C-alpha cells in the first residue's frame, strides 16, 4: 500500500560514532511465498478477464474516463457525458480511461511516421468525440480491467507487508492467502469500479497514519515524507469514495491519538493539513474545474445509515464460508486468550467493527468490501499468536484446512465470476 517500504539495515563503525542506512532487498522464503500467492491471484484474474465480455458499465467507464483525460464534455455545464460525478468518484474513471488514452496517443504518434495519404487520422488528430478511435484500439478489455487487478495486487502486497511486520511470516502468509483466494476480491478486481480503489486507499491510509504516529516519536525531519504520504493516501481515497476517506480520517485520528503519546498535540494539526491537501487532490481530479468539484459537497456521496445487511450477505455466502469460520475462531480467541489482545490485533478489529455496519444511501458502494483487508489482517494476527502456543499443531491444522478449503471454493467460483 501507500506505506510499503523496503527493509533498511543499518551499518556503522565499531565505535558507533557514524552510522548510515544501506538499502538491502531481501528475497527469502517469505517473499517467495508472497510472490507465488500474488501470481496465483493474477492468474485467476486474467483467466476471468479473458472470458468476460465488455458490458455497458465498461463502456461508460472507458468513455467518461477518456473524456476526463482528453478534453471536457461537449455538454455545457457538465464535467463529462456521465454528469458531474457527484455520486461517484473520479478515480475509477481515470484509472479506466488512462490506458485507452495512452494507446490513442501512441497510435497518433505512430501515424506521424506514415505518409500523409496513408495516415489514419487527418491532420494527426481526432475529430469529433474522444471515442472516435475505438475501432483502432486493441485489447480494450484488458486495458480496461487489468489496471484494477494491479491495484488489487498492490493491496495484497500491502496486506502481506503489514501483517508480516506485525505478526511474522505465518501471519502474513495466512492473511495474504485468504485475500488472494477470496471470491469477492477477485470479482471486484476484474471490473472497473471505485470500491476496489477505496479498499486499496483506505487500508493504506489507516496504516500510513499509524506509521506517521510512530514517526512522531522520532526527529521532526522524518515526519514530513510520511505526512506527505498520508496526504496522498487520503486524497486518492477521497477521489474513489468520499465516505471512505472520511472514515479513514476518523480511524487515523483515533489510532494516532493512541500512539502519539507525548506528541498528541500535533495529531490534529497533521490531520488538518492532510485533509486540506486531500481536497486539493480531489480538486485536481476534476481538472481544477470549480463547478463539478462543488458537487463533492452537495451531491450527498457521503450519506450513510447503519445496517448489517452487507455483512450478513458476506458471511452467509457459502463462498466465504472458510473466511467466516476463521473470523469466528479468531474473534473467540481474541476475547478469551490474553496474548491476542494488543493493539496490532485491536486496530484492524476496530476498523472492521466500524465499516461493516455502514451502508451508503446516495451512491451504490460496498463498505463491507473496504473492511475485508482489515478483517484478514485481524485473522492473520490472531492465528499467528496462537501458533506460538502449545496448541500450535491444532491451530496449524485448522489454518491449513481453512486455506485449502478457501482455495477450492474460489477456484470453483471462477466460472460464475466470469459471467
From TrEMBL:
The chain crosses the membrane at residues 33-50, 142-161, 173-190, 197-215, 227-258, 270-288, 314-335, 342-362, 368-387, 394-418. The lineage of its organism: Bacteria, Pseudomonadati, Acidobacteriota, Terriglobia, Terriglobales. This is Uncharacterized protein. Keywords: Membrane, Transmembrane, Transmembrane helix.
